[in-house]
Amino acid sequence: MRMTGRATPSSIIIVGGGASGVVLAAHLLKSPNPDLRVSLIEKRPHFGQGMAYSTLLSAHVLNVSAAGMSAYADDPGNFSRWLLERGLATPEQAPVYASRSVYARYLKELLDEIEAREQQTGRLRLIREESLSISPTASGVEVALANGTSVVAHLAVLATGHDEEPGAGQGHAIRMGSEADTALDPEARVLVLGTGLSMVDAFLSLEQRGHRGEIVAVSRRGLLPSPHRKGNPIKLDVADIPLGTQLSYFVGWFRDLIRENQKAGIDWRDVVDGLRPFNQKIWQNWPSSAKRRFVEHTKAWWDIHRHRMAPEVYARVAEAVQAGRIRLVAGRVVDIAAGDGFSVQVQSRHTQQLERFGVVRIYDCTGIARDISTTSNSVVRSLVGRGLARPDPLRLGLDVTANCEVIASDGTVSAKILAVGPLTRGTFFEIDAIPDIRVQCARLSKRLLG
Fold first, then answer.
1. 231 found inside a domain
2. In contact, 116 and 27? CB cutoff 8 Å
3. Domain count along the chain
4. Cβ atoms of 288 and 244 closer than 8 Å
5. Same structural domain for residues 37 and 118?
6. Among the four 19, 100, 180, 268, which has the fewest Cβ within 10 Å?
7. Per residue in 377-386, pLDDT tens?
8. CB-based contact 31:6 (threshold 8 Å)
9. What is residue 439's predicted lDDT score, i.e. its pLDDT?
10. Do residues 216 and 327 lie in contact, with contact meaning Cβ atoms separated by under 8 Å?
11. Cα angle at 274 between 272 and 279, to 5 degrees?
């Protein structure tokens, strides 16, 4: 937010009480400002869960070890200590990949602690209700709620996370765990759109239910995410990185960097992780042509190396692939005919051959590549529809400044409506995981409150 000539805001609404919203509230309420008021609004029954951490399945573990999952950017050991204090990990156990339900408990206890601390001050207000719209007012913003009431403040921050509905154009696909995800014949074949981490979650959920039928997973390249291994990221300086180049040059440089390090016995993971602190800067310095080419042609390769699985999860998935319970297909779905189940036609990427087969259900696990203007989120759809916000040029999220300010359809930068987390991926790209979100929230809190 541009604070020049403006008073520090004393009332802030956070729309979305999942992980991003709770982390932002935690950073804001570290401020000693007695006049600060934070309203956290969440439509789900529980704060801190969102889509990612609402699962109760123990096999759904974090894709980042505990060392990287602290809610606080300035206290990276917070979550690890929390696990140790509760006997959920031991000092010799490293790295630890906790279950997501355990992480949801961590966020809940963190928020409970803040709520208890702020009970006398009244600086935190938790509202369990769906937000419908945000409207600028003369002195700030007004957030309309589904129950007919509204909340007013100096500014609002969108922290609504990932879309809960399947992407537009996914036809008959449903989300795993949604109301439409009813009981299945355990021997039935199912189709999964996507072969990334969301597909892995779907497989683990089906396996937990006792499903034994074939799972056909289709994506353009049919690639499976790699497993984590214990290692040490290489040290890079920003001066080492060719910022602002075209994609082909950057990819060549990065491949050479990996080869050089592998010759020295260094795992490629340590090279990928060494680049992580600079990923957002790399993205922001690319010309628009490089960003578009990356999303269309390189992102799938990057994702399987950058967004990895816990080793024990990878072992289960690899075993299922070997046993034929998961069939990975590089190709695309060209036709779906509904009847008694679905008749699906898939074209192979490599041979161009067509294959038709029957499935009883289709799951959408295609990840984040979607058009934000088709979102199922009421608040975001309302903002875009009224011209108060616009999709970023690649339509990955909302168009925001480097300071998280939402940009209107006419290019005006809002001083009252901001966004954090996955909604801002068009500007920050790597902003889906806690290690990145907590840094973003810490910077925004410091900027807003000085």
1. no
2. no
3. 3
4. no
5. yes
6. 180
7. 889 999 999 9
8. no
9. 96
10. yes
11. 75
